[in-house]
Every structure is written in C-alpha cells, then in structure tokens.
Amino acid sequence: MYIVLLGPPGAGKGTQAQRLAAATGLVHISTGDMFREHVRNGTELGKVAKSYMDRGELVPDEVTIAMLLERLEQPDAAKGAMFDGYPRNVTQARALDEALAKRGAKIDRALLIEVSDEELVARLGGRWMCRRCGAVYHERNDPPKTPGICDRCGGELYQRDDDKPDVVRARLEKQKPPADLIEYYRERGVLRTVNGEQPLDAVTQALLEAIGPWPSA
Ligand code: ADP
Ligand code: ADP
Ligand code: ZN
User: Fold this and answer.
1) 138 C-alpha to center of ligand 2: Å?
2) Res. 214: pLDDT tops 70
C-alpha cells in the first residue's frame, strides 16, 4: 500500500505520518527530513536544497525527484510507503506514479489534511523538532515531557529557521497543495479529505478511517 499525505505547511503531515506509520507498519518517507539530513551532513545536495528552503521555496523538481526515486529503491519501501511532503506538484506525482507502475503498484490513497491559515501560522510558530529523529512537537499543543528534549530518543529539540514568520509567510503563499495536484488524485479516485483542525488523536482516527480496511495479506 502506497499513501501520500497532502496539506499546507503546518497541517500536521509529519506528526500524523509518524503515527500512521506506527499503526500500519509502512515506512515513513519525508522529503523535508531527507533534505534536512543533507543540510546537516553538508552534502552538495544539502547546499542546493538549503538555498531554496531558506527562502520558503520548493527545491527544484529534478533534484527532488531524483532523491525520492533513489529512496524508493530501498528494500523497506518495496511493498509500501507513507509519503509526507511529496509530491508537491503534478510533475512530482507523475514521476512517482511511473516508478510505482514499474513494480505493478500505484498510489492507493492521497490524504488531504485541511487547516485554516490562521491555525497554520500558530502551529508553525510553536513547532519544535528533534535534531536526531525528526519527531515533531508543539510548545502548547503537543509539548515534550521535558522541555527541549525528545520523548522518543532523548535528542535535542530545535526550532527550524524556516519556521520564522517571514519564511512562514512565503511558504504559505508558495507551498499549499496546488489545485491541479488535488485534482490529479481526485480523478484517480484515491483522494480523501480530512479536517486537520481537530485534536491530534481525532485527526489520526479520521485518517485511519479514510485509509479504509487494511489489506490482511
Ligand atoms: P513543511 O513544514 O512545509 O511540511 P517540509 O519539512 O515538508 O516542510 O519541507 C521543508 C522544505 O523542504 C520545504 O519548504 C521545501 O523547500 C523543501 N521540500 C520538501 N519536500 C519537497 C518537495 N517534495 N519538493 C520540493 N521541495 C521540497
Ligand atoms: P507539517 O508536516 O504538515 O508541516 P507538522 O506535523 O510538523 O506539520 O505539524 C506542525 C505543528 O503543528 C507541529 O508543531 C505539531 O506539533 C502541531 N500540530 C500538528 N497537528 C496538530 C493538531 N491536530 N492540533 C494542534 N497542533 C498540531
Ligand atoms: Zn528524537
């Protein structure tokens, strides 16, 4: 089973992807996390990606698609995956579909998480992330047990540079899921929309219902 999570920055894709991955056993693939790891490791790809991320812009498709397709080749993604933050446009969606088609697979669900702009700004402004494992927290809505420390791995929490107000504004302008991307999945009959402006557990529940009966084999 292959699932994509769609939604504007701050909708809760990363948070919910981790929960859904735990519930379904699917591997969680986040292009944002992959880019941040490249930045941390100082790779060439990281340098390119950072110049876009710092401005709240999308990293060019060529670079992003190559990175994602390489990840998809890993054995843990052979039977399914939960994509978070990919695709951001129809070009990326088509590239993923072509790669899946080669293995006789397809996207089974596109889950669109909807949240109002006002709430997105409040979420991004209070977001803290784990440097080590990428776990997501919110200083008010979903705080760690000990401030500054990750519950899951004990890693250090930090606030992302691109969660500063001016970059958030750029991201909300440039990075909402485009209408043609939503249409792309609607036409294929796999789109499900979920109200993301509910407590965390309620959103997880709604997403699990939207995924539907889990294949037993
Ligand atoms: P968000 O908080 O918006 O969910 P992500 O962690 O998914 O952010 O992504 C962080 C940044 O990484 C984005 O602002 C963008 O620059 C880049 N990025 C992540 N995924 C993609 C993608 N599929 N295509 C292009 N750029 C991406
Ligand atoms: P995305 O990956 O879509 O950018 P995140 O999962 O990183 O979104 O969530 C953005 C911020 O909002 C985080 O600080 C997270 O703790 C918080 N958050 C996520 N879901 C909810 C929710 N249902 N209610 C309140 N806060 C939430
Ligand atoms: Zn951690």
Assistant:
1) 7
2) no
